[in-house]
Amino acid sequence: MSPSGSLAEGEETEMITDDTLWEQGVAVIGMSGRFPGASDLEGFWQMLCEGRHGIRFFTEEELRENGVPEEQWKDPGYVRAKGMLSGPELFDAAFFGMPPREAEWTDPQQRLFLECSYEALESAGWVPDRYEGRIGVFGGCSMSTYLLHRIALQQGALGQDAESLILGCDKDFLTSRTAYKLNLRGPAVTVQTACSTSLVAVHLACQSLLSGECDMALAGGSSVSFPNAAGYRYQEGMILSPDGFCRTFDSEAQGTVPGNGVGVVALKRLELAAADGDPVYAVIRGSAANNDGGLKAGFTAPSPEGQAEVIADALAVSGVHPETIGYVEAHGTATPVGDPIEIAGLTRAYRQWTERSGYCAIGSVKSNLGHLDCAAGVAGLVKTVLALHHRKLPPSLHYHEPNPQLRLEDSPFYVQTQLGDWPEAGHPRRAGVSSFGIGATNAHVILEEAPSLKRDPSTRPWHVLPVSAGTETALEAAAERLREHLTSRLPGPADVEEIAYTLQVGRRGFPLRQAVVCRNGAEAVHRLGLPDTREPGQQAPGELRDAAWLFLPWRESDAEGLIELYRTEPVFRQHLQERLTAAEQASGLVLQEPVAALAAGSPGGEAPLLTGRSWTVVSMAASYSLGLTLQDMGLQPGRVGGEEEGEAVAAILAGLCTWDEAVRRAAEAAEPGGAVFTEARGVPVAVQPRAEKLHASPVHTKQAGRPAIDEVQAVLRTPGHRVIVFGSPPSDEDGVIGCHDSHSLSAALAALWTDGAEVDWQARYRLEKRQRVHLPTYPFERQYYSFLPPLQAEAPPPRSSAQEPLSPKNPIDGGEEPNPRTELETTLIRFHSEVLGLPEEEIRTDVPFYELGADSLSMTQIISRIQKAYPFPLNVRQLYEAQTIAELADSIEWSVLDLLEQEEERSEA
């Protein structure tokens, strides 16, 4: 570095750091957020690029309707503005296994954080139940004004709901609730540092990842205040603006605007993210947190020394030179005191390494959204990550001329006032993000644009795009979301493979399913737009009755499909090569060389021809290898059958013989015995006797006659089963799926998965380096849950049990509901309805309590009602051990019988 501290031309741009923890960095692999004026990240980025703000200015009618007293909004100092979320009371309770009463008791801050956490994981291409590592969650939320309004409405008396409301609204339970609902087994740490909460949460998540405490982490914050549509009272000299605008760094800046929002990012060590093929938005190169201590004007006052120190610490641990920073997302509260102190702190930190001025853009998302309190830091982080991802610098709003106290001309910074390209500068694009809390807990993060990650070239011509949901309407919405996403991009074959891979391995398989098979984006868009041809009804994953596998010989016309599979399906190719190697040793035939020659597109020449016997063995090997490929993916046959050499493959899978035995038999052209129908290892086997010998001839001669397969299919095909035909293409019949080339293999997998089979999609790609990509997330079906009346402008849809999705924890709608057997069961159903908030007609007496959404607290409340209704000694232990309403009724009845017997014994004595 030059004596002045600036970089000389061509000089190394990295600083030396001793912090080996940060050597690889932390990848931002997924994000989700809801901000004022933007319900998702796509809308958020569009708003930023267009230079719009999301501040809402309310009418008198809206304020009156939302319960704001007239004397407040008529006060001259009352500002009718707020960065308001649309419909924060709306929530998909059934998706997360929450009964309606629990959803109503839970603060919308925590509900939205839960939704965004799930979306961030899906954005990263992961679902918790498929991730073997530990996922941590770090975050915080604001004080629960939702609970305060409940207390006010009930005049301070919460009664028997007090404990439930505290569990649902207290800030302490934000991350532990998320970990419970999403089954996350890493650390769940609730962070509270006021305005810097969510960026401190990101810092702590990075530390946890780098120390190996967890393998993936969610981090963010949530802030939703009530009443939702309400302004604030301006006080001169305080932090809030007098007119509802946040003019960060401007000469007329007078404060910020309160706002609501929630944001969550999914993080992983960069090295691990690259190995897992994760989509990387950007990389966190370093982060730091500190506190100003007591050397400042007051508890709420900021300190340039403390801010400079945390920024310098973040730069030091990142090893990044400040001259390579192209943008800083400032805390930017637009106060006459705060803005100059922030610029002073930044300048002091940067001046430790550089004397350059005016080279780094600066801005603040508060000019768009207002101050989101505990979610402010993550909002700035998400904005900056999107800027790096799109290589654009969005404008900071309401800036016309600088506050002269900033002395920007003597600093490294200038305010970004227009949308512009983020220029290349001979090094990766980099940025800093600041967040400073009241009480002076400060955080700063150094970001870098994502590196180019390698992936294998696409060879697979056909791809499966699976879509699933918990309800029919959600399934339609999910398919439409995907169709719109593809329409806006029209990806080519290589990109469609990554899209298919992400949908297959990065989404949960819900009960209602559909899938399309396509070669490119245009085909996918067309087929997603076609009417869904699935049969009505729903089937839980894994409940499909096993399919039957029928193995037919591969004929001359099938060679092209076999070779296509060899070229495009690495797992199939590996199995086939292993089978052919073993077959060569067992039979003395030459098999690998001619197959490889065909795959290379050069049949003939010096390569041996596939004669009748050798083709028979290749045919067997191809069928067996396809079967093994499906078994690798978790699919097993219920029945197997075969014709000609396919008989041997069926026998192998049924355990009747080994591969080597089958090869020797085929090579010797031995005649099979009569028709066999037997049981082997619990698998029914149907075998058709060979109708004719396969003539000894090269593979390219006229196809041999094909025997009838009706008898075998009749034996195998039973109602409700699929028949998968390996080898020669089957006739076009309902329930019969061919599996003989790339298209038919993909179609077979799509059909089986749609039927409800659990397919291990990852096994298909185990020999490939595939890349996850960012795709639309689950279409939550939100309904209104709140004790506060909704605004008429945001009237919620009526709550309907038909919209409740079936989830593992909430299969309330499945099956017919048995009528209560007794008056006691009817009473118990009423108690469950009162506590859980479920309609009585939706509560079954034979469904386990946990599937109704009950937990230990709600069961305590139910048993308390039972004890009040039946004031005689009950065996409480037996009541708690009951798993269903029917069992609970039995326990009560047995307690009554015991009491009667005791009374009878006493009377006899």
TrEMBL record:
Keywords: Fatty acid metabolism, Lipid metabolism, Multifunctional enzyme, Phosphopantetheine, Phosphoprotein, Transferase. It comes from Paenibacillus mucilaginosus K02. PANTHER family: FATTY ACID SYNTHASE, INACTIVE PHENOLPHTHIOCEROL SYNTHESIS POLYKETIDE SYNTHASE TYPE I PKS1-RELATED. It holds the Pfam family KAsynt_C_assoc. GO terms for biological process: fatty acid biosynthetic process. Residues 791-821 are annotated as: Disordered. One of its GO terms (molecular function) is 3-oxoacyl-[acyl-carrier-protein] synthase activity. Residues 819-896 form the Carrier domain. The lineage of its organism: Bacteria, Bacillati, Bacillota, Bacilli, Bacillales. The keyword Phosphoprotein applies. Residues 23-449 form the Ketosynthase family 3 (KS3) domain. This is JamP. Coiled coil: none annotated.
